[in-house]
Amino acid sequence: MVHFHREKFVNRGGPDGGDGGRGGDVILEVRPTMNTLSVFRHQLKYIAQDGKNGGPNNMSGKSAENLVVYVPPGTIVINKETGKVLGDLVESGQQLLIARGGRGGRGNQHFATSRNQAPRTGEKGEPAEEFTIKLELKLIADVGLVGLPNAGKSSFLAAVTNANPKIADYPFTTLEAALGVAQIDEENSLVIADIPGLVEGAHKGVGLGFAFLKHVQRNRVLIHMIDGLAEDPLADYTQINNELALFDPKLGSKPQVVVINKIDLPDVKNRLPAIRASFKKAGIQVMTISALARTHVVDVLKKVQELLQQTPEPEPLGLETELPVYRPEENRYEFSIERIPEGWRVSGKGIERAAAMTLWEHEGSVRRFQHLMEKIGLDDALRDAGVEEGDTVFIADFELEWMD
């Protein structure tokens, strides 16, 4: 605020314009009760509040509250413009600062000097940071259920956990990855992710594609579910493993428990010896279950538990995800000049920021901006470029008339 103290019997009270409050930050925070990013389909832009204006008597405006946006555990945050990974949010309550709110502008109390005791100079608030980010979710689970569509993965998840996935006798019943917790005994439990069915070409995005393959990257052990009614179960097994390896070579080396499902059906019972023989010939150990009848499902969980004890924890991405996010210092007042049909365009983060913070209606603020142009060499650079009296100079959204 640009303001001068007014009080009865007090002449020339002096500048007492207060500072503006700081704008709110935008922060991502992990909320463990969330397990999808579907909320972001309905809202794509998040804007923190502005700080309050300064007042007279050197009163500073109130700073705005930070805007906290909740995300599920396992969310990877990527700067969409640069592709750089900003953070990997896995722990409950973990936060990541995405964009800082701008500091409040200074009131004219800060610009008084011995030579200018009544400054009509102030600042607007600093422009806020703005980023476009991409969020990817890789579910955090000990075990991933993989296999072709309709192999019985959702039925297995429902049999061993309290999860209620959609179950039906047609492919691609599961359209979203689901999580469930299986209790083996009083001390041991497993977090299991049901990954929607994969098909040939999934690593290229065919079917439900890599939208769900990425979830498997966090799993330490895989349960590979094979449909006992399939025409060639061994070929199905090979196909899924090929898709995993093509998407990420590390996925092909993850420990697997291979399970033949639907052994309660007469057709599967009759051909089970042949199926076992084909897998044995290929050097693959298999287990057999009926997810629907819950036959042998506990044996599968115990086998998975054994493999988990032998498998190390996944390595973290090694990212700095604590507040604040480090960003390298840039040259504050680096600028470029471009000749355009309407005049001259000056671009540069620092000079555009200074223009946005200038109170153009106050002569003192305008003079201060002119001094800045001289200090950083913008005046001389424009003259060297050929600017003439009366030309229009564009800086961000502002149009200035050049006067020499």
Automatic annotation (TrEMBL):
<feature type="domain" description="OCT">
    <location>
        <begin position="325"/>
        <end position="404"/>
    </location>
</feature>
<feature type="binding site">
    <location>
        <begin position="147"/>
        <end position="154"/>
    </location>
    <ligand>
        <name>GTP</name>
    </ligand>
</feature>
<dbReference type="Pfam" id="PF01926">
    <property type="entry name" value="MMR_HSR1"/>
</dbReference>
<comment type="function">
    <text>An essential GTPase which binds GTP, GDP and possibly (p)ppGpp with moderate affinity, with high nucleotide exchange rates and a fairly low GTP hydrolysis rate. Plays a role in control of the cell cycle, stress response, ribosome biogenesis and in those bacteria that undergo differentiation, in morphogenesis control.</text>
</comment>
<dbReference type="InterPro" id="IPR036346">
    <property type="entry name" value="GTP-bd_prot_GTP1/OBG_C_sf"/>
</dbReference>
<dbReference type="InterPro" id="IPR015349">
    <property type="entry name" value="OCT_dom"/>
</dbReference>
<feature type="domain" description="Obg">
    <location>
        <begin position="1"/>
        <end position="140"/>
    </location>
</feature>
<feature type="compositionally biased region" description="Gly residues">
    <location>
        <begin position="14"/>
        <end position="24"/>
    </location>
</feature>
<keyword id="KW-0479">Metal-binding</keyword>
<protein>
    <recommendedName>
        <fullName>GTPase Obg</fullName>
        <ecNumber>3.6.5.-</ecNumber>
    </recommendedName>
</protein>
<dbReference type="InterPro" id="IPR006169">
    <property type="entry name" value="GTP1_OBG_dom"/>
</dbReference>
<comment type="subunit">
    <text>Monomer.</text>
</comment>
<comment type="similarity">
    <text>Belongs to the TRAFAC class OBG-HflX-like GTPase superfamily. OBG GTPase family.</text>
</comment>
<dbReference type="GO" id="GO:0005737">
    <property type="term" value="C:cytoplasm"/>
</dbReference>
<dbReference type="GO" id="GO:0000287">
    <property type="term" value="F:magnesium ion binding"/>
</dbReference>
<dbReference type="InterPro" id="IPR036726">
    <property type="entry name" value="GTP1_OBG_dom_sf"/>
</dbReference>
<feature type="binding site">
    <location>
        <begin position="290"/>
        <end position="292"/>
    </location>
    <ligand>
        <name>GTP</name>
    </ligand>
</feature>
<keyword id="KW-0460">Magnesium</keyword>
<feature type="binding site">
    <location>
        <begin position="261"/>
        <end position="264"/>
    </location>
    <ligand>
        <name>GTP</name>
    </ligand>
</feature>
<dbReference type="GO" id="GO:0003924">
    <property type="term" value="F:GTPase activity"/>
</dbReference>
<dbReference type="InterPro" id="IPR031167">
    <property type="entry name" value="G_OBG"/>
</dbReference>
<feature type="binding site">
    <location>
        <position position="174"/>
    </location>
    <ligand>
        <name>Mg(2+)</name>
    </ligand>
</feature>
<dbReference type="InterPro" id="IPR006074">
    <property type="entry name" value="GTP1-OBG_CS"/>
</dbReference>
<feature type="domain" description="OBG-type G">
    <location>
        <begin position="141"/>
        <end position="309"/>
    </location>
</feature>
<keyword id="KW-0963">Cytoplasm</keyword>
<feature type="region of interest" description="Disordered">
    <location>
        <begin position="101"/>
        <end position="127"/>
    </location>
</feature>
<feature type="compositionally biased region" description="Polar residues">
    <location>
        <begin position="110"/>
        <end position="119"/>
    </location>
</feature>
<dbReference type="InterPro" id="IPR006073">
    <property type="entry name" value="GTP-bd"/>
</dbReference>
<keyword id="KW-0547">Nucleotide-binding</keyword>
<feature type="binding site">
    <location>
        <begin position="194"/>
        <end position="197"/>
    </location>
    <ligand>
        <name>GTP</name>
    </ligand>
</feature>
<dbReference type="Pfam" id="PF01018">
    <property type="entry name" value="GTP1_OBG"/>
</dbReference>
<dbReference type="InterPro" id="IPR045086">
    <property type="entry name" value="OBG_GTPase"/>
</dbReference>
<keyword id="KW-0342">GTP-binding</keyword>
<dbReference type="GO" id="GO:0042254">
    <property type="term" value="P:ribosome biogenesis"/>
</dbReference>
<dbReference type="InterPro" id="IPR027417">
    <property type="entry name" value="P-loop_NTPase"/>
</dbReference>
<dbReference type="Pfam" id="PF09269">
    <property type="entry name" value="DUF1967"/>
</dbReference>
<dbReference type="GO" id="GO:0005525">
    <property type="term" value="F:GTP binding"/>
</dbReference>
<dbReference type="InterPro" id="IPR014100">
    <property type="entry name" value="GTP-bd_Obg/CgtA"/>
</dbReference>
<feature type="binding site">
    <location>
        <position position="154"/>
    </location>
    <ligand>
        <name>Mg(2+)</name>
    </ligand>
</feature>
<keyword id="KW-0378">Hydrolase</keyword>
<feature type="binding site">
    <location>
        <begin position="172"/>
        <end position="176"/>
    </location>
    <ligand>
        <name>GTP</name>
    </ligand>
</feature>
<feature type="region of interest" description="Disordered">
    <location>
        <begin position="1"/>
        <end position="25"/>
    </location>
</feature>
